[in-house]
Structures are given as C-alpha cells and as structure tokens.
Queue: 4 jobs
Job 1
Amino acid sequence: MAQGVDTLISPEMEEAKGKWSEPRHSPPIALSDIRKWAIATYWPETPPAIYWDEDYAKTTRWGGVIAPRDFNPFAWPVRRMRPAAAAAPVKGVRLTSINGGQTDTYGVPMRPGDVISTRTRLKDFNERQGRFGLMLYSYNETEWTNQKGEFVRRRVGTGIRY
C-alpha cells in the first residue's frame, strides 16, 4: 500500500504523457504463422478456412487468407522489449499492480506478407483514493498499422497500482 506519499505520479510520467514511442516493425507475416496461430487458437477444433485454406479464402470478400483478429506478429521477439520506464510511478514506493482490463479496436485484417508497425504511449493517468489507499490508474495505448499505413489495431490497457 502506498502510505506516506501525496502522489504516485512521477515527473517521468508527466513528461511521457501522450508521447509516442519510436515504431517497431514485425518481420513479414508468413502464411504458416497465421495457420499455426489459428490451429492453436481453435484447438482441438478445426479453425475457420479463411485462416488457412488459400483456395477457399480467394472466394471470400477478403480475396485471400487473413489472420485471426487476435493474431500477434510480435508474439515471439528475438530480443525482449523492456517496458517503458516513463510509465513507472514515484521511486521508493512499493506498489501492488493489477490488470484493469483492455479495450481493442480493429481495422483492416492482417494478411500474409504484411509488415506491422507498432508504437505505444502513456495515454493518460489519474489517482484516486480507494479501499487500499491511494491508487494510480494508468492507460497505455498501443497502435498497429500495416506497410500501407492502414490502421490494424488499437489497444488501450488499464493498469492499477496501489
């Protein structure tokens, strides 16, 4: 519990608020990546053909294979990315963290050959008194676009610390 402090908001958080990170880029999405993701997601059932059957997918409104909406081309990074230090609350205060949920908004589907770019930012934050004392709510936004600059996905995740 945060005791003996007036705020959990650090100067680094104030400075970082609203500033987008440098973009990262996925490797080109392979048909086999989409197929494996769909198999894992739908196991033990057969995944919908739009995710693996090229002949079937050509007959759909998409004109080819697409990835499931939850597909993540960044799921297996060669180098692990460290979380942004700017999102850290004041130093010296030991806090408990819980996931406050997330909201996803989807645009165009991902397809074989796409290269996805991602960027993140500390969108907003606020504090309030709660049952556990002073609580910090932070809202982190992640945005994905494809190589054509088309919007693919936005996620706003809520982190709660007390």
Note: The chain has a mean pLDDT of 90.
Job 2
Amino acid sequence: MSEDVDAVVADTFRQDWGVVVATLIRMTGDWDLAEECAQDAFAQALSRWPGDGVPRRPGAWIVTAARNRAVDKLRRRSVETAKLREIAAAGDPARAPAGESGDATDGSGIADDRLRLLFTCCHPALSLEARVALTLRTLAGLSTAEIARACLVSEATMAKRLVRAKGKIRNAGIPYRVPSADLLPARTPGVLAVLYLLFNEGYAATAGAYRIRTDLCSEAIRLARLLAQLMPDEPEALGLLALMLLHDARRGARIDEAGRLVTLEDQDRTRWRRGEIDEGIAVLEPALDRGDVGPYQLQALIAACHATADTAADTDWAGIARLYRRLMDVTPSPVVALNHAVAVAMSDGPAAGLALIERLETDGRLADYHLLPATRADLLRRLGRHPEAAVAYRSAIELADTDPVRDYLIRRLAEVT
C-alpha cells in the first residue's frame, strides 16, 4: 500500500507541481512561501494517504492542503491580515476546471496561472539565464541539480542564480500577469527558451530512472499552444510548437517494452504518431513564410527531415548537416556543433564526423556531457576501431545520468569488447 501511495504522490508531483505553485504565488505573492507550502502539502500526502486512502482528485487535495498551509503561515504574521482577506475572497482553487486555477484578472483573456507564472519569470529585468532557471524550478518542479545539468552549470551556481532571481522579482515589484500586447516581444526569447528546455527535460530527462517524462512534454506543448494563440504572428512561437510536435510524435518508439533506449536509427517508424507529424508540419509552413528563419524553425526543419523519412536510410543527412550549419551561425553552441558533427558523419562518413568531434574535445565546454564521448565511441565503432571505442564508451557511462542511457551504453560497450 505504501508503495502505491508513493507512486501516486510522485505522479501527482510531476503533473500538478506547477499548478500548485502558480496558484499559491497568485494568492500570496510570496514565491518562497508558495514553494514551501507546496512541499509541505506533498509531505502531508505521504503521511496521511496511507491511512486515509488516496483522494479521488489527488491534485485538488494537494492544492487545498497547500492553500490551507499558506493561510496558517500568513495568519501567524500579524502584518498580513489584508492578504488573508484577499485569499479568503479568492475562493477554493481546487474547484477550478482542470488546467485553470482561477479567472483571468489581467485583461489577457488567458485564464491560466501557469502561463502568468511563465511570463512573470520571463520578465526582461531578469537575465535570460535567470528566467530559464526560475521557471524550470517553479513551473516544472525540477530540482536545482536537474536545472544545473540542463543548463550545463554547477549546482552551486544554479542555486545562487535562483535566489537572486526571486529577490529581484520581490524587490522590483514585478507583477504576476500576462503582459499587454506591446510588451510581449521583450519577453518572447525567455519564454521560448524556457518552454524549449522544459520540453527537452521531459523528452530526455537529465537524471533518474526514466528517460522520458511525459508530464513535462505534455505541459510544454500545452503552454506552447497557448503561446501560439497569444502570439499568432510570432514565427518562432510557431516554430517551437512545430518542433515539439515533431519530436513528441516519435516519443513512443524511443523506449522498447523492456524499458531500453532505442536510437532514432533503430526505431519502429510505424509507432510514430502521424497525426502529430502532420500537425507539426502544418504549423511550421506558415511560420517559414514570414521572413527570417530563427533557431526554433531551423530545428523544426531538421525534425521534419527525420519525421518524413520512410526509413533511416532515406534520411537526407546532407540536408540536415546544412541546416545544422545554418543553426550554428544563428545560435553558436557546442551542443549544436555536436549535432552537426553527427550529421556530417552520417552524410560524409564517420571519419569526417570524428574530425569535428576532436575539435569539440579540445574546446572543453562539453567535458562533462556524456553525449560527446558517446558520439566519439559510436563513430569509432563504425570505423572498426573497437579498443578506442571501448575507452570512449566507458567515459560516457561514467557521465550518464539516467538508467536507460547507461544501460544502452553498456550494451554498446559489450559489442566492442
């Protein structure tokens, strides 16, 4: 019974953390209090549900418990009596429809606390790095360590970044609302970056027993749809939504029945969801007609090349390599350079890709990124240089953070030893 409750609580956390925190921030205006009370509510669920039974609506139970905890804490602060009256007048958020936590009061017409939270976190007064980190923490419930890995910085650096971001919102009095139309462009880059990383963390979790977190993928797509509705003339918002849909269409084929990772080359393409692929392409086409092609549109074009190839052998790797070259010009990044090296290897041969990998190893920025030695190992394996491949696979295994990835690399290591 305890194991069942633990699983339900964990599932509820993944699905509803953002709802709970966003609701409490709207009510209290206190970010730290919101996170603290949300954590208390989940701890309360772990202690009470084994005896009382799991409630019919676990997420609503958590919201109510967190709200009550916040009221108790504010009641002990004598200076917060006005805030208490405001909370009492707001009503019980547990009765709100699924996906909403209250009525829109900011004139945006978007009745979604999580979207408000997203735009609040992405205020231009914050650095782009702070916007990304704060939203992944408050909206997605990612740990500081998970966010640090996603952003390729140390955990200590990320912890300081989060503290500074919250302090700046509090001290600057940044409002909790979707901004007016004329202010949207200033926040667009941060919002897009957050949704992109949120989806990536779900599609390829940076730690834990699971390679895919469907809850994060679904939440990122849901928010991307809302953003596209809010900004229908923003091509990069459409490009990001298309990118997510094209990747998500392949999600079910990435893990086999035994829970093992399946690479793109070996996936059963009949398991790809054609409806999502068609929708992604339909979203992308009008975005490409609007002028300069940005990084999310370029990535969506790359995803479309994969999604529309009938077999792995039919993939237009030369075209993908050219698109990655353009992406490197728009967004210089060692991760993009790594993907470009893979495309070159598939187009021009493993030796050509390996030369680019060696440049990235000299660069040093991906020293702790498991995909760098894993890619080197794969190219060496294809060249028949098995002893060198084994060394690279062992390095990748040491850096891997998820069980499916580690298992995949161990199986590859066995092939070359």
Note: Residues 2-97 form one domain.
Job 3
Amino acid sequence: MSVGSYAQAVALARTEDRALVEVEREGSRAVVRLNDPERLNPLSTALTVQLRIALTELSGDSAIRAIVLTGADPAFSAGGDLRMMRDVAHPMVDEDADGATGAWEWIRNEFGAIAKLITRTDKAFIAAVNGAAAGVGLSFALACDMIVASEQARFVPAFGRIGLLPEVGQSWLLTRRLGYQRAFELFATGRHLSGREAYELGLANAVVRHDQLMESASRWCEQLDRLPGHVLKMMKPLLRNASDMTWEQAIAMEEFAEPMCFTTDAHRQAVAELLAREA
C-alpha cells in the first residue's frame, strides 16, 4: 500500500496481524508490554496504533486502577521506527497535497494521543523501564506517574542525532525535572542516562535489579491499590496541574476538592478507625 496520508498510515497499521502489544490483566492492574523485541520495540505504525487502542480500552475499564507500561527484553522502546520515517513519514510529507499536516496528524493523533491518555486518565501509570527508552519511547515513560528503572535501563533523548527535535512533551517534562541547562545538555549530546543516573537525577522513583523490575512495579501497584478509589482519581489531576499554577490557584483547587472527600465512606471509616485506636 502506498502511504501518502495519515489515514493511509493508520489503514496500513491495521493490516498487521502480529500482536505487537501484549496486555495482561490481574485484578485491578494491567501490564502493557511492547512486543517487538528483535527490533527493540520500535514505535512502528502497527505497534503505535495497537498501543493506542490497548490503552484506550484499559482507560475505560472501571476495574483497572493501575497500568504498568514496559517492553519485552532487551528494550523498553527504541523510539520512532526508522523504517516508518523512511517509508511512511517522508512520503507523507512529500506526496500529501496537504504537505506536512499528515505527519502532524500522526504525531498528534497517535503519539500525542498516547501521551495525553497516560497523563489525563485517572488510572495510575507506572513505567517499568527494562532497557533502552529512546526518543518517543522515552517520552511515554516520562509521561507516566511513576518510573521504576532496571539497572539495565537507558534513558536516551536521541532526537538530535537524527535531525529531529524533542517531541510528545519531552522538552516540557525534562526541563521541569532537570532544569534548562541539564536538559539542554542531554538533548544536545544525546547522552545516555543509566537507570542509576536517572534515579539520582529524580527521573525515576526507584532503580532495582533487572530480575526484580516487574516485582517492584507490582509492589507499587499494591500500594496504590490501598488508596481509596476517589483519592487516586482526584490526586492525579491535582498534582499534574499544580506545577503550572500559581500558589493561589493551587490552594483554591485544593479548597474545592477537599470538601468532596469529607462526603465519602472511605474517609469517614478511616477517621472512625483512628479515633477508636485512641479510645
């Protein structure tokens, strides 16, 4: 199929019969695994569309509270697929009568939609970074609510080396976490960060032995599962937006949110239990 538009790229992706994204459900959590390990789980058209569909389905599942995003060893994701750039993105830009807007649609409606879903859904997302997380793959990991890194993890802001700029929110995420100069250094040099370095810089919540990665992610899910349902749902948007608000805006948001918590059975039962211990 000749690919000259965004619609054709999606249609081509849907012809793939291999399962490039695996979903495992266990109680209130799900593990989503990028599964093209021989190629280091690149974000091809097919894998990307399958990932968007899988995450969209999970985000609408009321039984799921936490989603672990990982890759099949040895990588998390090599990022944007070079073959896709050559065979899809370049023809799309060159042949589409609408010029580069077809590529814009792909970036917005596929890559961007996945990042926005991770940040906006009320599910908790935990990235279990098992190997190299590069380019857009790194953007997806950074968008998650928590990151657990294997000692074999590599954080790779690789855009500059192939003549591209940071995308899918990565410039925003890294400059806020690392500061401008350190983020500039990483983008300019493409320097790889180990899992240990990512943890020390505050990009990861934990770094663990490789064989303990999924167990560690599971323990985080268990801790989140202990929270009352409304706390997780309300906490995520509160914290996500706080860094871009003034102090006055943030405290006003908290003032409106807190009274709703007083109306819940979970809050009242917890208060009663604590008071009973004091009696």
Note: The chain has a mean pLDDT of 93.
Job 4
Amino acid sequence: MFFPLFLPLLIGLSVICSPALAQKKTIGIGVVEVTPAILQSANAAGSRDVLSRIKQAMDGQLIDKVHNTRKFDVISRSDLAKILKEQEFANSGNVDVSDPNAAKAFMLGGIQYVLTTSISDFQDHHETAYFEGLGETISKRSIRLGAVAKIYDTTTGKLLESANFQIDTGGHEEKNKFVTSTSGSESDQFILQLATEMADRVANRVVDVLYPARVIAVTGDQVTINRGDGTGIEVGQIWEIYALGQELIDPDTGESLGQEETSIGRVHIKRVNPKTSQGDAEENLGIQPLQVIRQVE
C-alpha cells in the first residue's frame, strides 16, 4: 500500500539519471585580437585593411564554427568582452580584491571555458607576371596567416591548451597559380575562405581537447563516430581508434597526463552525416563504443 507514495520519487530519480538531461558545457569566445607587432607590420606594408577584414571575418566564423560543433552553449563575444574588461579593472589595483562582489579573473558565472584567439602572423604578398603571347598582366596573391588559440578552465583559471595554427595559401599548388584577382568580390571571397579555414582549425581543436571524438556504435565492420558535417571529418579520411587504460601521473608534478592509449583499429570514413559519420573498419582488434578515435594525419 506504500507503492503509490514511492512512485513519484522513483519517476523523479529516473528523470534525473536520464542521459537525455545531460547538459552542454558553456564556452565564452573572446574577440579575435591582433598582436601589436603584426599590426605595426601590416601598417608599414599597407595591408592593414586586409588584416582588419580577416580579423572581423574570423570573429563571426569562430562563433559559428564552435556553435555548430553542437557540443557547447556559446556566450557571445560582446558579452564576454565586457566581463573580461571588468575583471581586468578588478585586477588593476583600483579595486579591493577582498570584496566578494569584485570580479575574479576567469571566474565567469555559468561559463566553464574561455577561448581566446590572437593573430600572431600575417603577410599579404602580391606578384605580377606579364604573358607576352597573351598580351596580359596577371597577378598572383598569397597570404600567410598564423593564430594562437588558448583554452582556459574558468573554475581554476588554468590554461588547458595552447595551439599555434599556420595557413599559407602559397603552399597549396592549386592556389599558387597565376590568376586574375583584381575584382573586389574575388578578394572578399579569398579573405572569407581564409578566415573560415582558420576558424575551422581552432574550433576543431577546442572540441578535440574538451570532447575527444568517440565511437558510439559498432555494427559488424561499420563504425559510427560522434562527429558530423562541419567538424573537419571528410569521406576518405583514416581515423585510428584507441582503448583507454590506466591514468598516467607525472612523477614530478603529480599532474594527470591523461590515460594510457592502445591502438586497436583503423576506420576508413565512408559517409558524413549532419551529426555522425560512418566508416569501415580496416583493422579491428576489439573496437567498442566509447573508445577514443583520432584522425591519422
């Protein structure tokens, strides 16, 4: 006769434990910055306008790319900038840091992670060539762009990851041919593609650090991964799967270095869906769901 009394409690517990209620983590994305030395160099070379357009494009693309990983709730850069500015003022010496209402560095309410990105390398190079047989002067343009991305844990203020990314359009043969690029629309498209590629690389690194790709299903030789369109995964890629072992501890610092990893298979990606991807196991030494999987470069 006591069963009706416990029924609401049991239902409540089942709801609380349901995986469907697992919450996304929140990440704040700061405005893309340009280092003073790079800004000075761009001013001297007359390419500050191009650098500014790349920066603005990266601002929007970075938010879009991180949001479309479907792993985070994203705080807009304008809100984050205000919070960080307040925290800088709190640490300037003009505020009583013992005041419980004073802003604390990286202690952002509701935000688990902060992503900051700065442009650390930039060069816009133009060449021209005259083709006598055609009677035309054709130009070639290459841009070198470098950025440093940092991920902070707001609960501790610790730096979790710092990564340097480099893109050199002159390094790609298909982009290194002499082509006419005098129109504004072609130039804008070139800049947008560059900013999009850099934002892609940064967003994918964020996900890889905080949420490593995992196997979510195995059916025969078909392996399903929790990575889909827009996360850098493409048909034809080879991904390697690892079984996780014991936790590794640095004997000098006592810091966790992650878990021991043993390669147990490779997957050839055959299909990319909006949220997942499937591939065929080319090697299978015991592939199981929840195992970590990484692209083979």
Note: Residues 1-20, 99-107, 171-183 have pLDDT under 50 and may be disordered.
